[in-house]
Amino acid sequence: MKRRLTLMVIIGALLLTALNGKSETNDISSGARDAPVRYDPPAKVSVQSSQFDRAWNAMQVPDPSRIDNCVVLPERDVDVPARVDGPLAELLVEAGDAVTAGQVIGRMENRRHQAIRNAAEQRHREALHLAKCDAALREARVAAEVADLHYQSRLDANERRAGTVNNNELLNYRLEAARALHNAEKAATEHERNALVAAAREAEFVAAEIDFEDCQMTTPFDGIVVQTSAVAGEWVAAGNTVVRVVNLDVLFVQGVLSPRLLGADMLASRQVSVSFRDSNDNPASLPATVSFVSPLLHANGGRQLRVKVKNKMIDGHWILKPGMVATVHLGSADPVMPVAAAGEG
């Protein structure tokens, strides 16, 4: 309003000056050439200097503690992709649905992945059974102990009475004891190998299980489905977006700080407020917290500011939505001061 009033006053003064000059020209051309020419200076427009200065400053210098034309952005906005190639078997949500973290929202064709998973599971069970079964190992150890006892008994007999067991027979007992001990060592190695095979089969089963689970698409957080990009039966490549989910609980409001502000780094974690107009064009405001002040300067000397807002729901609807335009109010108690005020101090 002040800008408009000042401009109207200036334009009125210029029009008055032009009209007076035109009036004198008409008088001269109408026959009053012999009469002395009378010159009346244009009326002086009275404008108080303080009013003019305030209006001019209002037009030229915006309030540095008020950041207008800020954009509202979602804190968490995720495109949920297909993780495997194939046809989309079913899509369980549509735009506007509320979802929770971990909820299954779609499935890819998974028959082949399921068959691979089942085969890997059976191999893992077989290997695990062999790894747990130590019958062969226990039998080999007992055989080695018995063979060694037979050999030791023959040695004792010869010590009590020389020649009781001839040398060839004694060597055979010794060979049998050594062979039994070797078989026990082989059985122990085989048992360890079975354990390693079981671990490998378990890893294969886990990988197959992951591939099978990748056929399902789940939401990473609570939110609202805002877009679906595929329909059931459509071929979808791995990495292509199927559903877009946005969380509206917490939002960001992003704007540019005035270059007239000093000490913008002191705004970090500061409590501020955000004003906007809701979907019904009613004024509304919410408390917010400064979450980021960019160290980089824009071309005009300003710096990017981002504040975090905890959204509010009224009658089942969020009052602040991504894409809205808002104003950030730094507050009257803000420690940051304009450049002019700092210079006066």
- In angstroms, what is the radius of gyration? 45 Å
Q: Give me the oligomer status.
A: single chain
Strand content: 25-35%
Q: How many alpha or pi helices?
A: 6
How does the overall form come out from the CA principal axes? elongated
Taking pLDDT < 50 over at least 5 consecutive residues as the criterion, the unreliable ranges are 28-35, 42-47, 332-345
- The class by helix and strand makeup works out as alpha+beta
Distance between the termini: 31 Å
Main sheet: strand order: 1-8-11-10-9-14
CATH homology superfamily of the largest domain: Efflux pump adaptor protein, beta barrel domain
**Main sheet properties:** 6 strands, antiparallel, barrel
Structure description:
The protein has 345 residues and is an alpha+beta fold. It folds into three domains: 1-25 and 47-55, no CATH class; 66-76 and 245-344, Efflux pump adaptor protein, beta barrel domain (Elongation Factor Tu (Ef-tu), domain 3, Beta Barrel), CATH 2.40.30; 111-213. It contains six helices and 14 strands. The strands form three sheets. Strands 1-8-11-10-9-14 form a six-stranded antiparallel beta barrel. It has a four-stranded antiparallel beta sheet with strand order 5-4-2-7, with no helix packed on it. Helix 3 (111-132) packs antiparallel against helix 5 (167-213) and helix 4 (135-160) packs antiparallel against helix 5. Mean pLDDT is 83; it is low at 28-35, 42-47 and 332-345.
